[in-house]
């Protein structure tokens, strides 16, 4: 992870991208979180490494690890999963739980795949929120406002220098929720993130989206 953090620092500097922190609620020291964010660019990975400097592992598609060079850093920073394989999904969940047990934060993009629309968010899956309830780990939502402007999901070869803002929202506790109420926790986080994305008005959303 230290190597991955250094790589993110050097690479982003070299391509003219500056990371900007917008803190609505700071992270607590020595607290493991389940970090979640919107997801519409491969820039999310280096942005995550800039945004969270404590030990962290993400959950990501195994196929992305096959991208030349980038795959080396990707595989070092994520727990990979083949979504088409139930056994592999179960193995990845067990690994994520073990990381949280060891007080290491994890990152999950609850949209599952890129939001390729002009809406603030696409639908959320239950995984991050079920894991939060099962492990009683607080959820820390973040907004990646400019990732799609720096590296659009349509073109992996077109990187645009500029700002890369991360907004740190208030943490959401899973205390009091049962697994039967996972949809309520999911909706609470979704509503918070959607409201704040609209507030900050990133480029990809339309006013009536």
Descriptive report:
With 209 residues, this protein is an alpha/beta fold. It has one domain (2-200): Glycerol-3-phosphate (1)-acyltransferase, CATH 3.40.1130.10. Helix content is 37%, strand content 18%. It has helices at residues 2-14, 44-51, 70-77, 86-101, 127-135, 147-150, 182-200, and strands at 17-23, 34-37, 56-61, 78-81, 105-108, 139-144, 162-168. It has a 7-stranded mixed beta sheet with strand order 1-7-6-2-5-3-4, with helices on both faces.
Précis, in short:
This protein has 209 residues and is α/β, with parallel strands linked by helices. It has one domain (2-200): Glycerol-3-phosphate (1)-acyltransferase (3-Layer(aba) Sandwich).
Topology (elements, then pairings):
Layout: H1 2-14, E1 17-23, E2 34-37, H2 44-51, E3 56-61, H3 70-77, E4 78-81, H4 86-101, E5 105-108, H5 127-135, E6 139-144, H6 147-150, E7 162-168, H7 182-200
Parallel strand pairs: 1-7, 2-5, 2-6, 3-4, 3-5
Antiparallel strand pairs: 6-7
Helix pairs in contact: 1-2, 5-7
Total domain units: 1
| Largest sheet data | 7 strands, mixed
Helix content: 25-40%
- Helix count equals 7
**Low-confidence stretches at least 5 residues in length (pLDDT < 50)?**
none
Q: What would you call the shape?
A: globular
Mean pLDDT: 89
CATH architectural category? 3-Layer(aba) Sandwich
- Structural category is alpha/beta
Task: Report the count of strand segments.
Answer: 7
Mind telling me the CATH superfamily name?
A: Glycerol-3-phosphate (1)-acyltransferase
User: Can you list the strand order of the major beta sheet?
Assistant: 1-7-6-2-5-3-4
CATH topology: Glycerol-3-phosphate (1)-acyltransferase
In N-to-C order, the SSE pattern is: HEEHEHEHEHEHEH
Give the strand content: 15-25%
Task: From the alpha carbons, calculate the radius of gyration and give it in angstroms.
Answer: 16 Å
* Straight-line N-to-C gap: 37 Å
Q: Could you name the CATH class?
A: Alpha Beta
């Amino acid at each position: 992870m230290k190597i991955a953090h250094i790589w993110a620092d050097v690479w982003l500097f070299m391509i003219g991208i500056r990371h900007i922190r917008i803190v609505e609620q700071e992270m607590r020291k020595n607290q493991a979180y389940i970090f979640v964010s919107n997801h519409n660019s491969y820039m999310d990975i280096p942005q995550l490494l800039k945004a969270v400097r404590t030990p962290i592992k993400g959950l990501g598609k195994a196929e992305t690890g096959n991208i030349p060079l980038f795959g080396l850093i990707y595989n070092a920073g994520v727990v990979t999963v083949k979504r088409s394989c139930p056994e592999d999904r179960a193995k990845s969940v067990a690994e994520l739980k073990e990381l949280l047990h060891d007080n290491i934060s994890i990152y999950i993009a609850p949209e599952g795949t890129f939001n390729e629309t002009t809406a603030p968010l696409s639908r959320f899956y239950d995984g991050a929120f079920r894991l939060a309830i099962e492990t009683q780990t607080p959820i820390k939502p973040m907004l990646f406002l400019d990732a799609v402007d720096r590296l659009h999901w349509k073109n992996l070869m077109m990187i645009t220098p500029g700002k890369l803002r991360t907004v740190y929202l208030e943490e959401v506790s899973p205390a009091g929720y049962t697994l039967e109420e996972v949809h309520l926790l999911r909706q609470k986080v979704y509503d918070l993130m959607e409201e704040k994305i609209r507030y900050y008005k990133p480029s990809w959303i339309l006013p009536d989206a």
